[in-house]
Amino acid sequence: MKANIGRLVNVPHFFIILFLVLCSTNLYSQELTVLKGVITSDKGELLSGVTVQVKNTQLITQTNKEGEYLLSKVPVNISLLFSRLGYRDLILDLKLISDKENTQNIILITDIQSLDEVNITEKFNSSHLINLESAKFSAFPQTSGSFESYIKNMPGVSGNNELSSQYSVRGGNFDENLVYLNDVEIYRPMLIRSGQQEGLGFINPDLASSALFSAGGFEARYGDKLSSILDIRYGKPDSLSLELQAGFIYTSAALKLPLKNGFFLAGIRNKKNQSYLGRQNLIGNYQSGFSDYQFLYRQNLSSKLNLSFFGLYNAGGIKINPDKRITEFGTSDDVLRLFVNYDGEESSHYKALNSALTLSYNVNNTLNFKWINSVASINEDEQANLLGWYSFNEKQGGGLSIKNGGSLLGMGSNQTFFNNYLKSLIYNTELRMHKQVKSSFIEMGMRFQSDQINDRLDEYTALDTSGYSFPAQGNWTYSGLINQQNLVNIQRFSGFIQNTFNLLPNLMMAAGARFNYNTYSQENMISPRVSWMFKPGYSEQLLLRFSAGTYNQAPFYREIKNYNGILNAAARAQKSVHFITGTDYKFKGLGTSLKFSSEIYYKVLSRITPYKIEDLKIRYLSDKIAKGYAAGADLSISGNFARDLESTFRISIMKTEEDIQDDFYFAKNLSGNQIIVKPGYLKRPTDQLFNVGMMFQDRLIQNPTYKVHLNLIYSSALPIGPPGPARHTDVFKIPAYKRADIGFSKDLADPEAKKSSIFIKKYFQTLSIHAELFNLLNFKNTVSYLWLNDKMSHQYAVPNYLTSRMFNFRVIAKLKSR
Question: What percent of the chain has pLDDT over 90?
Answer without folding.
Answer: 49
